[in-house]
Amino acid sequence: ARNQPVKSISTGERVVLRSIKGRQDIRIKCPDKSKSLVVMNQETYLKKAHSILDDETKYEKVEKPLGSLEKETHTLYKELGLDEKLSNRLFTAINFGDARFPEFYDLPKSHKPGIPLHPVISAFQTPTAGISIILERILNQLLPYVPANLKNTYEALDHLRTC
Is pTM, for the whole model, over 0.85? Predict the structure, then answer.
């Protein structure tokens, strides 16, 4: 038949997945770089995820209510003069009225030993998402002036400062 999905798993595998789908002690995730599935013990998964989020060198726990973060971001935009430098339409667009907190999710790296988790932070509709879009457009215009082989972000920033 036309337009039938290609079956990537066997009938037996499908039966097993259906049988464990609702279990609270199992986590089923799509991995980082393949079209397979990773079936992981929930306790193991939570330990790995918490070890990522507990790293205070990379993540900071935010105790503020979302409304105050929106207000602080809006105040910062005004202090930077963005309300005068950007069109009214663009300034309004970068200030989401229905902002939300960033969301953490992860992708298991099934191609690596121990299946570590690749952390991802979704910043969609967060208080700073709009300004991130503008910064991306500005920085993309500067990319031709950055050498292709950079050691790290600091080297890229140093190079941009000297342009």
Answer: no
